[in-house]
Amino acid sequence: MNMAENEAAKLGSAIKDAASNSKSVLVEATVQTRDDVSTPVVILSSDDAVRVISAHAPRIIYLVEQAFDLAGEIEAARDEMDDMGVERSPDLLKATQRRFAPHDGKIGATIASFMIDGVLHTTVSTATWHDEFGDTVEAILEESREGASAGQVAKNSEKAKAIESKALVLVKHPSFNHGRVSFDKRMALAETLFQDCDPHTLSEITRRAENLFWLEQSGVQLDGV
What is the pTM of this model? Predict the structure, then answer.
């Protein structure tokens, strides 16, 4: 049985042969275009970037070598924990700071960019220890995020229980359904009973009490009523 010809493999092989015969620089990369940028961009590996620069000698090469600021990175992590409203996990952060202290001030990331034939070529390289530091800090922050989320759920649950308890007290009060009633009058009663609550909480208590009252009138037996 004759196998169908692989046009993709045929094209790749032909281009490689042509590049070799013409002494062209062959780079395995995809040129990208973005809606907000008119210049096409290609991301190169470190080795390919050096090879292309050596072959084409671009007039200008933009190079950024980022020094590792350990204290700044740790403080940024602490600030993020503060924003979450959780404890800073000082032991974990201090241990991380001690572990990566030997790399403080070293080059952690290098970015190079240059133009050839109207295409922006870019390459980025990060030190292995720099990546490990980022992974370690992210793991600590993720644990803090989970703790903050769980804490918020618990906080919301406690608030809901407090509102439910106060709503039960409100709905049992003789004045709750006395005379011509309205939400405002019932909320005024709630304000008298629960003077430590803010207006928003009083509104939630009153609304819940009205719901409980309606349920009771519908024949539902409520706990505590």
Answer: 0.54
